[in-house]
């Protein structure tokens, strides 16, 4: 019996006999499972390779985050170095180091 058949029988039972808590929970469980399978199918993750695909996506996302963090760190380091170089050049000009070198 498929999930759709089970859900149809539960809905028929609820409409003819009334719906008690157990029937309502079963309807929710079956419809949730059908919905989850439908979503996975639409995403293309309903085959045997789905777990491998998700593992690869997780690895790719982890690598992207590491690269982004590394690039951000490098930009900040270069900005600090540039500011320090500008500060040193400013101090050298202020002290007249250029005149001493001539």
Count the E strands.
0
Q: End-to-end span in angstroms? A: 95 Å
- Portion in strands: under 5%
Net shape: rod-shaped
- What Rg, in angstroms, do the CA atoms define? 32 Å
**What oligomeric state is this?**
single chain
Helix amount: over 70%
Class from helix and strand fractions: mainly alpha
The ordered string of helix (H) and strand (E) elements is HHHH
Question: What do these coordinates show?
Answer:
This protein is mainly α and 102 residues long. Helix content is 87%, strand content 0%. It is built from 4 helices and no strands. It has helices spanning 3-17, 21-43, 50-95, 97-101. Helix 1 (3-17) packs antiparallel against helix 2. The protein is rod-shaped. 2% of the residues are buried. The mean pLDDT is 87.
Write the layout of secondary structure elements.
Elements: H1 3-17, H2 21-43, H3 50-95, H4 97-101
Briefly, what is this?
87% of the residues lie in helices and 0% in strands.
Features:
single chain; 102 residues; mainly alpha; 4 helices; rod-shaped; DUF6127 family protein; transmembrane helix; membrane; DUF6127
């Amino acid at each position: 019996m498929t999930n759709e058949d089970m859900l149809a029988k539960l809905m028929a039972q609820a409409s003819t006999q009334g719906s008690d808590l157990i029937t309502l929970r079963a309807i929710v469980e079956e419809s949730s499972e059908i919905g989850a399978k439908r979503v996975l199918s639409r995403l293309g993750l309903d085959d045997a390779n789905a777990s491998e695909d998700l593992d690869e996506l997780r690895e790719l996302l982890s690598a992207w985050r590491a690269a982004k963090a590394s690039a951000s760190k490098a930009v900040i380091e270069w900005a600090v170095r540039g500011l320090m170089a500008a500060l040193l050049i400013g101090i050298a000009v202020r002290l007249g180091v250029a005149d001493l070198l001539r």
